[in-house]
Amino acid sequence: QVQLVESGGGLVQAGGSLRLSCSASGRIVRVSRMDWYRQAPGKARELVASINSGGSTNYANSVKGRFTISRDNAKNTVYLQMNSLKPEDTAVYYCNVEGYFGAWATYFNDWGQGTQVTVSS
């Protein structure tokens, strides 16, 4: 099986920065796509940023120019650097990772446990 562990959330003032991390462990053969989602109270979960195995990235319009997604393939870890944070960025942030694990290269698509990001005005 594959385990995802997130870290880096917290409370920050508007204009501040936070860096989220999500590390995948287990008998991983290959990680392909790595995403960050967020869910604010009373709202649907939304895709914030995505990075594929080649390093190509995509961002939600609301975070372009402020957030940067990156990955360390040697550590099977994805990061989300969040700058110029706004109160509307307050949400629980989840990583979503897909790839292959085990002796048979079985496909997986798993979620992290979520980490709270709170931005005060």
Question: What is the fold's blueprint, element by element?
Answer:
Blueprint: E1 2-7, E2 10-13, E3 18-26, E4 28-39, E5 46-51, E6 57-59, E7 67-72, E8 77-82, E9 91-101, E10 106-111, E11 115-120
Parallel strand pairs: 2-11
Antiparallel strand pairs: 1-3, 3-8, 4-5, 4-9, 5-6, 7-8, 9-10, 9-11
Please name the defining characteristics of this protein.
single chain; mainly beta; 11 strands; 121 residues; seven-stranded mixed sheet; four-stranded antiparallel sheet
What can you tell me about this protein's structure?
By secondary structure, the protein is mainly β. Helices cover 0% and strands 62% of the residues. The protein has no helices and eleven strands. The chain has strands spanning 2-7, 10-13, 18-26, 28-39, 46-51, 57-59, 67-72, 77-82, 91-101, 106-111, 115-120. Strands 2, 4, 5, 6, 9, 10 and 11 form a seven-stranded mixed beta sheet that branches. A four-stranded antiparallel beta sheet has the order 1-3-8-7, with no helix packed on it. The radius of gyration is 14 Å and the shape is elongated. The termini are far apart. The mean pLDDT is 97.
